[in-house]
Structure formats: structure tokens, C-alpha cells
Amino acid sequence: MNNIFDSIPGDLSAEVFDQLVAGDSVRIERIISKGHSSPETGWYDQDCSEWVVVLRGEAILSFMDDSSVTLKVGDYINIPAHKKHRVLWTTPETETVWLAVHY
Amino acid sequence: MNNIFDSIPGDLSAEVFDQLVAGDSVRIERIISKGHSSPETGWYDQDCSEWVVVLRGEAILSFMDDSSVTLKVGDYINIPAHKKHRVLWTTPETETVWLAVHY
User: pTM score, two decimals?
Assistant: First the structure.
């Protein structure tokens, strides 16, 4: 058994991605951000859908249609495959812990 | 956008299961327990694997090999398909909010 809030690296100069489960058709990932936006340029354009929940911290996702959404602790959103999106902002004050399910 | 901690029913006389995502090969579910153990008799014996994290509250899972594990906030565990298990206990003091990914 592990804890989703444990083993947060001290060096968060870059976002940290940890794979928790890799099945044939699903990938569960923990992402730690701290003041990051991503990707550095352009948009995420993923072949799979992604369901994501913020478990600590705060973030803003933006979409290519100019909409955006602020995610606080417990907020979750489903991002269909190929819906172009980016992480516009994460709070610099604390780690933002995301749980992402790619399916 | 929704919040995983919102819309917790007042009536928790039975466990509450909410399906958040239903894909071809994955099902994401929120489960609310409050003092429940489950199933009422016997064991869960599932065709799919289940990854589960406790986001609020506290629970004990037990397995057919007599092992058990206490899950507190943030603790997660992967339960392979057909590994027989049951929820032995959840705290009666508050809701236990589980996030389960069946895959």
C-alpha cells in the first residue's frame, strides 16, 4: 500500500509524473506541479481520454476554444481524446497533486 | 466540472455508488461508505482489476488469505481481478469517500 501524498520530491523544478498503474487499456498517473504550466509550448493533444482530479493545490486548465476551468481540491474533469488543452497555471504556494486516469 | 466531495447524500443507510466515467475498458466510480462493511456476506470476486484510493475517512480491507490493510486518507491499493476481498470496516464517524478505477 502507498499514499498518494507521500514521496513528493524536494526538487520540483520540473513537473513530476509517476505511473501508478499501467494496464492494457488504462494508465493511472500521479502528477506533481508547483507553479508549472505545461506543455511549455502548444497544447496537449492526446490519443486517449483523460479523467483528472486535483487532490491538493489548485490549477487552471485552458482549452483551445478559449474556455478555461479552475480546479480546486476535489474538482475533477473529463478531457476527451484530442480535446486540445494545457495547464495554464498551478499555484506556486504549494504542490498541486493530480490524479490522472488515461483510458 | 464536479467535485468528488460534493453531493454526498444525507441518507447513508446503504453505501452509495456513483459512476463518474464508463469507458469501453474502464469504469471510474465514487463510493461513499459510513460504518458499512461489504458485501453483506461473502467476498467481492471481480472479473476486473480495481485500483482504489481513500480520499476521506478510513477503512479496512480484508483478503481471503486473512491479511488486511487499513486505508487512511491518500492510501491506495491495487486489487487484481479475482483476488477475493471485502470491506471489513469503515469509520462510523464520518463518510469514507473512495475513488475506484475498475479496469
Answer: 0.94
